[in-house]
Amino acid sequence: MWYLWLQILFLLALAALCGAGLAYWWLRGRYEDVTETYSALISSTKLAPDLMERSDLDARLLELSEKIDRLENADLSPLEAQILGLANELPDAQPELSPLLSEIQAASDRSEAYSQSIDERLAAIEANAKDGDLEQDRFDAMTSRLDGLETRLSGAIASRLVRFTMR
Fold first, then answer.
1. Exposed, middle or buried by CB within 10 Å (0-12, 13-18, 19+), for 90?
2. For residue 121, with 0-12 CB atoms within 10 Å meaning exposed, 13-18 middle and 19 or more buried, which class applies?
3. Are 41 and 47 within 8 A, CB to CB?
């Protein structure tokens, strides 16, 4: 059993070493170490980049602005003429809306009929609710009579129990 454990441990260590070697090889081939070039850039003056001075930058910007000012505006009159020609060719007619208006009117009539049937149903429900209120009044009267009857019966039973216990 120990022999198997040692074999597994050896193979795991070998796999880890192979993986580390592969990672080192892959990273070395694809990434550049910038620490060496940065230190060389800082230490030597001949590798310093050629940077523009403020006066050179102002001169170039002034030259660019002069070139922009010398540009002529584009003549857009032919394009404007074509657009106006197309606008004049389009008719000023209004679209025919009578079929759409008739459909809207028919839908309005259907909705009014549906609304009227809903109003009738609501009226019937309100009438049933009023009848229900009358039924509730009768039920309340019956409940109060039953409560009175229960009170009288419990009083009568209690008085008979008292008489029975005293005997």
1. exposed
2. exposed
3. yes
Residue 103 vs residues 95, 109, 113: alpha-carbon distances, Å? 16, 10, 16
Contact present, 3 and 10 (Cβ < 8 Å): no
Q: What are phi and psi of 51, to 5 degrees?
A: -95, 145
Residue 41 · residue 48 · CB < 8 Å:
yes
What is the spatial distance between Cα 29 and Cα 21, in angstroms, rounded to a whole number?
12
- Tell me the C-alpha to C-alpha distance, in Å, between residue 82 and each of 33, 50, 92, 94: 62, 53, 18, 24
Amino acid type, 117 = S
Query: Residue 113, Cα to own-chain centre: how many angstroms?
Result: 39
**Residue 124 tokens, joined:** 């019937």
The CA distances from residue 94 to 66, 69, 89, 123, 140, in Å, are 53, 48, 15, 46, 70
Which pTM value belongs to this model?
0.25
Q: What sections of the chain are H helices per DSSP?
A: 2-30, 34-43, 54-70, 77-89, 98-166
For the segment 66-119, what is each residue's pLDDT rounded down to a tens digit?
Answer: 888 888 877 888 888 988 888 777 776 667 778 888 888 888 888 888 888 888
